[in-house]
Amino acid sequence: MQPLVSTAWLADRLGTLGLIVLDATFVPVQPDPPRDEAAEFRDGHIPGARFLDLRALSTGQATSLPAADRLAERLGAIGIGDDAQIVLYDNSPHHSAARAWWLLRRFARGLPVAILDGGLAKWRAEGRAIEAGDGFSAPTRFGADPDLAPVRTKAMVLAGLDSDLQQLVDARSPARFDGSEADPRGLPSGHIPGSINLHYARFFRDDGTWRSPQKLAALFTGAGIDLDRPITATCGSGITAAIPAFALHLLGRDAALYDGSWTEWAADPQTPKVTA
């Protein structure tokens, strides 16, 4: 299974033994009125899909990584075994399936995991089947297999600020990055010194599908990022940072991710911050 699959590919394989579709919709910065991702899932989802519930898979501080046993408990509760193949989709402006991919890569590295190109919006636009309800799955036991080597902490990022071994890619909007727009969580504005802004929306076509590998590579190199040197992705709270990380995965590169991101960095009065 390729890491990025089409709606046609999935439609042809729905119901295949061992293939599990997970709805990874998450809206970290809520609009007014707020969205209820679980209720939206019940109202309509890809047939046979199960609800991952990314909102619950948080420590409560921004959206930092959950404990391995917490994720394993959730995967077991929705019937995912160690021999599953996972296809992730979302219906979020933040393309949160990439965050789910990152979590599964960290805690379920033995599972084949793919993202549905274009997500639920493309599936609906093509007139494909939708079903309502909670989705049924018999609980099972899932054994987590953590690989946290690519996870960066605040201390690690601080230590690398003056090093050529660290390239920081910030996936937030240009206005959030340069401080001209207020932080939605009421934190100081700006960015980590030395980081390069590459807005997550630029990785997608107008229909929400991922750009070609050639276009993705050009986005990185055009921003001055050396694809042959280590790259750490960051954003506001660790959600959209997974988008450049997945893009690099499509290019055959591995990326690290600063999970605390700007939420943790800005909350610390001792960390250096840059505007403009």
UniProtKB/TrEMBL annotation:
Asked if Transferase is a keyword of the record, the answer is yes
SUPFAM superfamilies, per database record: Rhodanese/Cell cycle control phosphatase (SSF52821)
Q: Which UniProt keywords apply?
A: Pyruvate, Repeat, Transferase
Xref: Gene3D superfamilies: Rhodanese-like domain (3.40.250.10)
Name under which the protein is recorded: Sulfurtransferase
UniProt cross-references to SMART domains, sorted A to Z = RHOD
Statement: the UniProt record of this protein carries the keyword Metal-binding: no
Q: Name one GO molecular function term.
A: thiosulfate-cyanide sulfurtransferase activity
| Residue ranges constituting the Rhodanese domain according to the UniProt record | 33-132, 167-274
Give the classification, highest ranks: Bacteria, Pseudomonadati, Pseudomonadota, Alphaproteobacteria, Sphingomonadales
Classify the source by domain of life.
Answer: Bacteria
